[in-house]
Design goal:
Layout: H1 2-16, H2 41-49, H3 55-59, H4 63-67, H5 74-85, H6 95-103, E1 107-108, H7 113-118, E2 123-124, E3 128-133, H8 139-149, E4 162-167, H9 174-183, H10 188-193, E5 195-199, H11 203-217, E6 222-228, H12 232-237, H13 244-265, E7 268-273, E8 275-277, E9 289-291, H14 294-300, E10 303-309, E11 315-321
Parallel strand pairs: 3-7, 3-10, 4-5, 4-6, 6-7
Antiparallel strand pairs: 1-2, 8-9, 10-11
Helix pairs in contact: 8-9, 11-13
Length: about 325
């Protein structure tokens, strides 16, 4: 959130000064800065190899997690935590300061005026948004649209950043991005170059892709992470009630990592979720389905949306909850 806030404030100042181009800046700190505080280059490389690419990622991790990094002793980890504590603000601040941070948030337009109104501007950066619904309700289409709109200028509802797309169901279509880019008056070839795509083949690979995402986001300006869908592979890799507890534990770790990336890099995280028939509900009830993942997914999502089919090709979006 802080990364986006700082970026937006500088961009807004550039608009006020009438500048044609705006210099993009971010507030997360590269691990290389730690060398100035006495941390060896070899130790920094070990952190990079373990998936830590910013000072913030080290500061937000537990001592136990850092101790799992091969080659780092407990003494080194404790010293490292002392150093990053002085570099990353993690203490209390007033509600007034928190309000100012909220005012500086960037939202990504969904391409739908009415949906943007429902979301009070669009998809919020620095947090996790979940959309669930049956097949053919427009979840994947919304994912593709956001990959394009996040590249637009802030004044037009974008964030002037690139997008990362993790596809778990094989539904990603580059030609859709081309059509959407043309709709918004953008160069389709440039729009495609600004989207990093990966196909996840199992839940472990899906988690590994987040480490790769952190590495590439530390090198360039990104505004969006899409996971379509977040639960599909967990649903097939873990079967039956006997593996339910393990599935929920790994799913919680995946969602926690997504939340950390949203806060660390100031990106919007947008995930889709499947639904399942609700065995507790009546077959004639108006809504006999529920999203997969239970309370684990519900608690991880800052904003939760439900898509359902309307008449003809119309789709109805309902805001289930949002702070």
């Amino acid at each position: 959130m802080a990364a986006v806030a700082g970026y937006y404030e500088e961009a807004h100042q550039g608009e006020q000064q009438g500048e044609e181009s705006m210099e993009i800046s971010v507030n997360y700190q590269s691990l290389e800065i730690l060398q100035e505080h006495g941390v060896a280059a070899s130790d920094i490389q070990k952190l990079n190899d373990a998936g830590f690419h910013t000072v913030e990622s080290v500061a937000h991790s537990t001592v136990r997690k850092l101790s799992e990094v091969r080659g780092l002793s407990e003494a080194k980890v404790l010293k490292l935590k002392e150093i990053v504590k002085t570099m990353v603000p993690m203490d209390f601040k007033t509600a007034a300061d928190a309000l100012e941070d909220r005012k500086a948030l960037v939202t990504l337009t969904t391409g739908s005026t009415e949906l943007d109104k429902l979301l009070e501007g669009g998809i919020e950066t620095g947090s996790l948004t979940e959309v669930f619904g049956e097949f053919r309700t427009g979840k994947t289409q919304l994912c593709h649209t956001l990959c394009v709109t996040c590249q637009m200028p802030i004044s037009e509802g974008g964030a002037e950043g690139k997008a990362i797309y993790i596809d778990t169901e094989g539904t990603f279509r580059p030609n859709r991005l081309q059509a959407i880019a043309e709709r918004f008056g953008m160069d389709p070839s440039v729009a495609l170059e600004n989207v990093a795509y990966a196909r996840a083949h199992n839940s472990e690979h899906q988690m590994e892709l987040l480490k790769m995402a952190a590495a590439i986001m530390s090198q360039d300006r990104y505004a969006l992470i899409v996971v379509d869908s977040a639960t599909a592979l967990y649903r097939t890799d873990y079967c039956g009630r006997g593996e339910l507890s393990e599935r929920q534990m790994h799913l919680a770790q995946f969602l926690r990592q997504l939340t950390r990336l949203a806060e660390e890099f100031g990106v919007a995280v947008f995930i889709t979720n499947q639904v399942v028939a609700n065995p507790d509900g009546m077959s004639f009830a108006k809504d006999s389905t529920k999203p997969i993942g239970g309370n684990i997914v519900a608690h991880a999502s800052t904003t939760r949306l439900r898509l359902r089919k309307g008449r003809g090709e119309n789709r109805i979006c309902t805001g289930k909850y949002s702070p």
